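Minutes, project check-in

Agenda point 3 was the complex the collaborators sent over. CS summarized: three entities, 480 residues total, and the question is how they sit relative to each other. Sequences were read into the notes so everyone works from the same version.
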Amino acid sequence: MSTLVWFRRDLRLADHAPLRAACASGEPVLPVFIWDPEQEGADAHWPTGAASRVWLHHSLASLGAALALRGSRLLLACGPTAAVLDELARATGATSLHFNRRIEPAARALEARVAARLGERLAVNAHGDGLLVPVTRLATASGEPYRVFTPFWRKLRETFDPGRPLPAPSAVPAPAQWPASVALDVLGLLPRIRWDIPLTDAWRIGEDAARARLWDFATGHAGHYDARRDFPAVDGVSRLSPHLHFGEISPRQAWLAVQSAAAAAGLMTVPETMLGWLRQIAWREFACHLLHHYPQTADAPLRDDFRDFPWCDDPQAVARWQRGETGFPIVDAGMRELWQTGWMHNRVRMIVASFLCKDIGAHWLEGARWFWDTLFDADLANNTQGWQWTAGCGADAAPYFRVFNPTLQSAKFDPDGVYLRRWLPELARLPTADLHAPGQAAPLTLAGAGVKLGSTYPAPMLDHGAARLAALARLKRAQA
DNA sequence: TGAAATGTTGGGGCG
DNA sequence: ACGCCCCAACATTTC
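CS then shared the predicted structure for the full assembly.
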């Protein structure tokens, strides 16, 4: 007799209903994580990206250590999920299975296969810690899923009650004998060429670090979020996205932390200044609801009038964007931050995304795939909605005529050039006024700063004014 | 969670 | 002193 807890993208012990329920059963608990080649192969649907695999490796190590401190283990297995769980259940005489639902199409299909295979012999319990509110609960007056964020957010604020925090169990009952487990390295999550080491240096991975960062943020920068969130050189955002994606913290814990921080400051309710960040948590929730209700949007535009949109197929231009060699400093700085840290500031994400979809005219999936592979926080729901929002083909998307001007955005949100100089040291000696658009700087100024366009730094790959007009023409024609 | 084009206004230079 | 024009500053409209 035992209980299985199947860990997925919920790599934590606190606020974890499946683990809590398993511990309450009184039976020995078998925590397991499965790396499934059928889900992760080259022909699988959005298999885990390269950067995400690195994070996953370290997060699993952290979760294993945390379980060990509670007298338990994290079993690791490599194989088809349903078969692995089936075998484990037979070997240990398990009578029930607990796990948290996911909303990604492939993950939901997998859950269905698991339930079909194990449902007759085991009590299969699906929990919903990944979301604040179950996807079936929030609906418009006509019963449709929300497709506009603002009413979604209003409804969420009115109806959501986070309840009380669910602490981590102090001990997890162990079986008399542990079944076999593979070593973490066997999962092969780390790259052969160890490019991951400098990337992970910038992060502390795992539940303990995530909770510490959450509390620091909730009691500190969260109170100034709206005033500082748009400035990539300022330490004003939470950087919690990878932790949230891997479930090292839950969105409910995020909500509760903000409430607790407000209470600790002597406030009865969460002040307006701290709501800005919860609004971002709600964007994440909104993206999950959309992907659940419109699962085809992971690969296709939500809006029908974009079905035959004339995206420009220019692999060389996309490659320049990927490498941060567009000649537009704010774009290049962002793409290099992404490549070197596995993360990019949100304001800069919008700028580089607008540049790819509007200026270059590339298909939004080109951007989505690159982000998917390079971001530590790559999340199918957020990534899909973010890119479709930028391209104008998603729910509540940016109007087609909204085209970011990279130079103006740069001057507005990095006025002193601190962010640009950090990621583009070859431009560091340019006066700030010229830093945002070296392509328009006087030759003497460039020479004085040691910048040679086309050799030390690329000349602009396109004329933004002309690219903007071309994008407007394409988009206007496509409007139904 | 834009930006450019176009419109309006009012202060100041100047004949 | 007056009217005219220029244009910066701001507001509105349009893409």
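Noted in discussion: Chain A has three domains: 2-130, 131-166+207-293, 304-478.
Follow-up: revisit at the next meeting once the mutant set is ready.
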